Amino acid sequence: MKIDVTQHLTLGAKRTLKAFRLAMFEALSEKGFDKITVNDICKKSEYPRATFYNYFDDKFDLLQYLWSYIGKDILDKIPKNGDEEDGIVKIFNLLLEFFNDHQELLINITKNNGSDSHLWHSMSGYLRHEANILIYNYCKENNQVKVPVKLLARFYSDLIIAVLEWCLFEQPDIDVDTADEYLISLLNGGLNA
Amino acid sequence: MKIDVTQHLTLGAKRTLKAFRLAMFEALSEKGFDKITVNDICKKSEYPRATFYNYFDDKFDLLQYLWSYIGKDILDKIPKNGDEEDGIVKIFNLLLEFFNDHQELLINITKNNGSDSHLWHSMSGYLRHEANILIYNYCKENNQVKVPVKLLARFYSDLIIAVLEWCLFEQPDIDVDTADEYLISLLNGGLNA
DNA sequence: GTTGTATTTTGACAGTTGTCAATTATTTTA
DNA sequence: TAAAATAATTGACAACTGTCAAAATACAAC
């Protein structure tokens, strides 16, 4: 991003950001992400290309911003500290719940794009990153493990995303209890669980 | 890829593929992947752009092909079946060994690109994919686990890449035994290990 | 309200991308 | 070896990308 959205934004900047956000969201419901051009976004938002590049590096950058905007809703619900295992399961359940509550978003993500598309990769990458930060905070107090905390947090966030992807794309009709069972099984070691 | 490199290739096709492979490899040692253009590759290989597009969709596609070409060396060494845990550790050790033996490759990957760059993501994505196929074959006989085999294999390949990345970028002077310890700890459940 | 400053918007540009039908080279067959 | 068939190469094209310095707008202080 060319600007810092965590700082104070002028009315104009807010208006423009919103227009680009909505334009991308609309475009995503119409065609695959790789077919969407910056020109498409600019036509929809009625801004010239140069304005787009005042805010974003490219269309990937806008997508990233879109996820972070949507993601605020989920992240606010997650407790900032607590027990490791509980925290991990909690994050996972909130993510699963979020996608159940936003079926239409998931449909847009998969409609014109495969589950291996850039679109899902970009979103899951964002979620993994945010989960990683939260989990690192859960883990950093715990010095009893043999493994470096940063690696441990990475391991947990990878796991959450893996099970989430499984539930969304491979077994969409799964119930929460079974999903949690999968997660906890792997959390406690895949082999002997 | 526009052509199937597993099928028989004519002399001309082999010659051209090699030229593009070498051109990309050389370009990577000179600048960051995102700064490399198809034009650069074509200048180096002395082929016109249109020829490039007869073989590859884009520069990402060529990169993918480059990894698969380089990766043949590693993959051939890995036993095609065996015990789960042993197999996973074996794959991990071969990957670690490979990068120790090819320091200059790793340097090229990191020199003009961060560890979070497209370049490493592309390579690790390829390795994860290949590891996943091998591990799936190890696991598919084992019906005693609660978790779907496909998810289990995904979990293991994610884990291998996570520990590999840790060893290459966060703790480059790590010894193999410590690395294996990390891997096995996480394999047996991060929390109670 | 006017002035000056900072921010946002803009059109135009040079370079890059991916595709096409036409050309050239290579291999196969007779 | 010559003709036919197949495969590889090519230049030219239209569309897209990202950047710039100039213009327009919003905002603050007086």
Could you tell me the number of beta strands of chain A?
Answer: 0
Determine the most extensive contact between two protein chains.
A-B, 31 and 31 residues
Q: How far apart lie the N and C ends of chain A?
A: 44 Å
**Class per helix and strand makeup of chain A:** mainly alpha
Describe the structure in your own words:
The structure is a homodimer of 193-residue chains. With 193 residues, the first copy, chain A, is an all-alpha fold. Chain A folds into 2 domains: 11-63, Arc Repressor Mutant, subunit A (Orthogonal Bundle), CATH 1.10.10; 77-187, no CATH class. Chain A is built from 9 helices and no strands. Chain A has helices at residues 11-30, 38-45, 49-55, 59-75, 84-101, 103-111, 118-139, 149-170, 176-187. The longest helix of chain A has 22 residues, at 118-139. The N and C termini of chain A lie far apart (44 Å). Chain B binds a DNA duplex (30 and 30 nucleotides) through residues 10-13, 16, 37-39, 47-54, 57-58.
Overview features:
homodimer; mainly alpha; Arc Repressor Mutant, subunit A; 2 domains; DNA-binding
In terms of topology, how is this protein built?
The structure is a homodimer of 193-residue chains.
Chain A: H1 11-30, H2 38-45, H3 49-55, H4 59-75, H5 84-101, H6 103-111, H7 118-139, H8 149-170, H9 176-187
The structure holds a DNA duplex (30 and 30 nucleotides).
